[in-house]
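Researcher: Last one for today. Full complex below.
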Amino acid sequence: MEVIRVENVTKSFKIYKERAVTLKERILGRKNKVEIFEALKSVSLYVQKGETVGLLGRNGSGKSTLLKMLTGILYPDEGLIHVEGKISSLLELGAGFHPDFTGRENIFMNASILGLNKKEIRAKLDDIIAFSELKEYIENPVRNYSSGMYMRLAFSVAIMVEPDVLLIDEVLAVGDSAFQQKCMDQLMKLKAKGTTIVFVSHDLTAMEKLCDRVVWINNSVIEDEGYPKKIIDKYLTFLANEENTRLLSTGTESGNQDESQSTNVIEPIEKNESDRWGNRDIELTEVIFKDSENNKRLGFMSGDTATINIKFKTNKETKEPVFGVGISNLEGVNCYGTNTWIDHYKIDVLHMSEIGEISFKIPSLDLVAGTYLISVAVHDVYGNPYDYHDKRYTIKVSSITSDIGVAKIKHQWILERKK
Amino acid sequence: MFEKIKEVYAYRQMLESLVLTDLRTRYKGSILGFFWTLLNPLLLLCVYSIVFKFVVRIQMDNYSSFLFIGLITWNVFSQSILSGAGVIIRNAGLIKKIYFPKELLPLSVVIGGVLNYFFSFLVLLFILIINKIAIGWPILLFPLILFILSIFTLALTMLISALNVYFRDLEHIVGILIMGWFYLTPIVFPSNMIPNELHLIFDLNPIRIFVEGFQDIYYYNKFPNWSELLVGTIVSFVLLVISMKIFKKLSRNFAEVI
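Model: Here's the assembly. Have a good evening.
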């Protein structure tokens, strides 16, 4: 049975640049400058009874607008929305909390706003207070509460209402991890009882755990929906790609600066920058990061194929040069470093004015999620630098798992049980 | 329409919360607190009594009683309209964050006004007894007149509260209009003092029906003019139906506009 039916819903907002609100402005006929922003474009969504659906998407993609329309706060411009049963929504915490009243009084007020009558509230009062863990403070006015306490009280009320349909918008993020866990458990319980839940969150682990289906909204339309893990992976890859384009566009700006610098360094005077040194007998002119399809990239997914392309120019004939690459994280910990000499990759001699490139191929970029600083260098076998670029390059690694550490060790778990 | 009334009834607990919050927060922090509800009309009575008894010199037996009846009746209406004009905007936080029938907001304001009337009624009884005015059966009709008055008040409050969201000057315009309307209603003077040329305006004033009705049952100890009261009832309900339709239409966009 479908509890939530959203059919071809379109919603746009007028964004007033300057708005005539007063009589004077209306009479003087000041024009309203309006921009139309389409928050949702003919979106359709059906949710079965007892199903838990997660909404995923970047900020401003239309998730909250959809939730607000499901609650009945906003109305669609076109299309149809139908929700069956008692709806409780946690769009914003503490709507209707009055700072001067005590916690207990606010529970009554808030629960009544969510549609309970006095008898029902009384029956649930002890549960609500117990769940919020605010027994000692329940007679204090809520203006003295910390934001965490405020949120705990609000969530306790909303979740104890036991609605048919529960709509939650990114509110679990507040509160300490112990309380978050408790909220998750409570949501699981509601789910087991057959409550239909629509859930917006950026906590992807929670989403994967809780949801039966995930809907990805991007730029006002439903991009994809389906099995949580699959959609979340797709979404993360998309995010990594977006991050990559962002990095590349900012990278070209700073790249131009680099070029002007490299024209400088052709001058014989040895220039000592804080992150670049060496006598420039061999000069590293460009460092490019590429993916398996040979596209320029600065954002990678963990496990991707990556290539570091180092272009060089020889200013003086050099015997047995050694090229090296180092990867360190933002804390300055060296995650991995190697060079051609360590790896027994022998380069005999580079002649004067020779131009070439050397590639460092990584079949599987086994790094945990994070930002990494890359150093590249060329030096002689004793370590005297020709050109050393210390942590001059930045790449970003995203991951669909939340493992941690410096090294990503290949592994598998095996459970053996004996009677 | 019937659906809406059913929904409002389902949210009666929230309505109660809204009314109580309003009553409790109004005098929060003041030393006399809730006593202001009783003190306010009394002080107002003092001021008007001095002006109209000693300066304007209206000749009337028990003028204070007469004046008080008109004042508390007028208060139900004017306070609801004035406070109701901004009620939607004041509660922007609720409207943007949760769903509830928006009709509750103007309704809560009017109910608050009616509750105030009940407190004033106790004071009125006290004044009537002090002035040795005969109290008889007609006084039992006060809930009926109050009910019709509140329907009329609710209709106007809903209309103004909704329109004020889109046209904020209304709040200020209404303030002035209400002040003028006060003197077009026989509150500080009895109806027989109205000159003939102005009678038409007074006759068309629906509030006059309620004020005179109350004056009949309290001050003159007689039954109200039934035919006028019937007209008042019909006007009030027709107006309410129209207001609810307009309110429903306008309320769809409240969350976006405020």
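Chain B has one domain: 2-257. The CA atoms of residues 23 and 112 of chain B lie 7 Å apart.
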